[in-house]
Amino acid sequence: MLADKRALGVAVAAIGAFIELYATQALLPLLVREFAATPAEVSRTVSASTFAVAIIAPFTGAFADAIGRKRVIVTAMFLLVVPTALAGLAPTLDALVFWRFVQGLLLPPIFAVTVAYIGEEFPAEATAMTGLYVAASGVGGFLSRFLSGILAEHYGWRASFFGLALVTLACAITIAVFLPKERRFLKSASIVAGFRFMAAHLRNPRLLATFAVGFGVLFAFVGLFTYINFVLAAPPFLLSTQALGTIFVVYLVGIVLPPFSAPLVERIGRRGLVAAASGVWIVGLCITLIPNLAMILLGLALCVSCGFLCQSCATSYVAVTARQARSSAVGLYVAFYYVGGGAGAVVVGYGWSAGGWPGCVAIVSLVVALVAVFAWFFWRDPA
Questions:
Q1: What angle do CA 283, 28, 257 make, to 5 degrees?
Q2: 37 CB contacts (<8 Å, ≥6 apart)?
Q3: How many beta carbons lie within 10 A of that of residue 124, not counting itself?
Q4: Is residue 18 a contact partner of residue 141, using CB atoms and an 8 Å limit?
Q5: Angle of CA points 212, 313, 194, to nearest 5°
């Protein structure tokens, strides 16, 4: 029963964090019209959150290593309700970007610390529990785009943020009630000691390669799912805001695999799984070039499935490779991961400007190939 409660708490923490992070992706074409802005300008509502996550994540790790896990997770989730609601009141695009940045500052204390919690409380089941966490984050990512798209279509884009604020509050209450206090947590001597461990992590080549993998995974995800909206909102598809939110049902296809990644890891190893998934991911990207909605959805489903597999492998590899100060290691991973996300929103935008969707696919494919290279040459699977 206790294990079930921990699993529920972990899943709800992942859902609550990721339901906010990409909330504006389905709204981007609507925001272009609302604020008379360009696609690159409204994409800041995505990159602002991801860059904020990258800035605060390393400090979150050191802080959590000194004071604990559940206290940090629950407090951050309750605080997240405030900027989410205020984003719905933003009078200008710059104000919306600001509140999205504040949201991003509150996310690492939730998901980075949750991954550390998994590594400590489930040492023998780290891969399986990380798969659950990644699957739950996929549910959160789907609900983020789906709910925001539906609410915006019927009640306006501001209602999207008010609705997500209520969902976040419900998640905060659930975690406070059901997530047990950590039992295996080893407190750092001080926050300064946490930073010393962080410096040691940055000298570990396996962890550095894992940080690079994380960078590439979210770069590809954000680049893909930010600019595909502009493809589908334009002729010949002309999808509405609600329909754009609905296409993220492909996330539900993608989250099926991560909970079952443990047997695959045992069979071919983490680096073999990442290499294979990266190859299929590139195939999925190429399929999205076919000007047919069904084929684009198939390509997106392949990309999501492979992306979540790579993310599950990388996250669990951090948890088992960092022997001390796991929150600091996870915090650094999250920082690189979300720098990658912010870079994806910006760099892939240049591909969009220069070559349209084929330009985006070319850039993302190159980065996915580099993910496979870093995992294959720097990771070592345990015997």
A1: 35
A2: 31, 93
A3: 7
A4: yes
A5: 60
Residue 208's nearest CA partner among 332, 324, 320, 307 is 332
Q: Is 98 exposed, middle or buried (0-12, 13-18, 19+ CB in 10 A)?
A: middle
Residue 1's pLDDT band (cuts 50, 70, 90): very low
Structure-token pair, residue 107:
């996310």
Residue type, 238: L
SS3 content of the chain, % helix, strand, coil (to 5): 85, 0, 15
Q: Would you list the DSSP string of 168-221? A: HHHHHHHHHHHSPPPSS----S-HHHHHHHHHHHTT-HHHHHHHHHHHHHHHHH
- Tokens for 75, please give them: 């407090």
pLDDT surpasses 80 at 237:
yes
Closest CA to 307 of 335, 270, 280: 280
The tokens describing 262, both together, are 């443990």
Fold of domain 2-177+188-378? Growth Hormone; Chain: A; (1.20.1250)
Both structure tokens of 15: 């859902």
Spatial CA neighbour of 123 closest among 182, 169, 174, 165: 182
CA angle 171, 223, 56 (to 5 degrees): 50
312-331, pLDDT tens digit by residue? 888 878 867 766 666 678 77
**Percent of the chain's residues with pLDDT above 70:** 86
How far apart (Å, rounded) are the C-alpha atoms in residues 275 and 277? Answer: 6
